[in-house]
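Entry for the shared binder. Reason: the reviewer on the internal report wants the predicted structure included alongside the sequence.
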Amino acid sequence: MDLDIESPFTLALKGSSQTSFSLDKLPPTLHPTRLQSTVHHHPEVDIFPFPAFRDNMILAGPNVFDDEICIDILYGVQISESVEITSRSCLDGPFSDSGRTGLIVWDDPWKPESWEVDERFANKYKGLLRGCDYLLRSSNYWRSVRGEPPLVLEEV
C-alpha cells in the first residue's frame, strides 16, 4: 500500500467523491470511531476490530505504522535489540525468536475474540493498547487454552 493513501473514512473531509461505500456492509466492530472520521490517517489503521486501538494509533501520529511496527505485527518482537530494522518490505522481515507474531488472528479477523496480542508486542506497544480491555481478555483466553498464565499489562 502506498504511504500516501488516505482512509476512506476521512476522504469525505477533502470533499472526495470516492466515499461511495456503505457502513452497513462493514461488521460493527470495524465501523469508524469519531476520530477515524475526523482525523486524516492511513487505511492500515482501519483494519483492527478494536476502536480504542485504532484511536490510539491515530493519536500516536501519522508515522506510527512504520516498518518497525509492521514487522513486529507480522513477525513478532525480537528479544535481541541487535536486530536491525531496515526499510525493506514487511514480508521480508525476520521471524521472532519466540516463534510468534505480534498480533495473532485465530479466526475471522473482524471478530475481536479472534485476536491475541503477544506478550512482547504488548509490552513494547502498551501505549497503543490503552483502553483495549477486550483485546487483553481475548488474548488471555487464547493463552489459557495453551495453559499459559494471563497477560497483565501495567498502566502506561
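Summary line for the report: The chain is about 30% helix and 5% strand.
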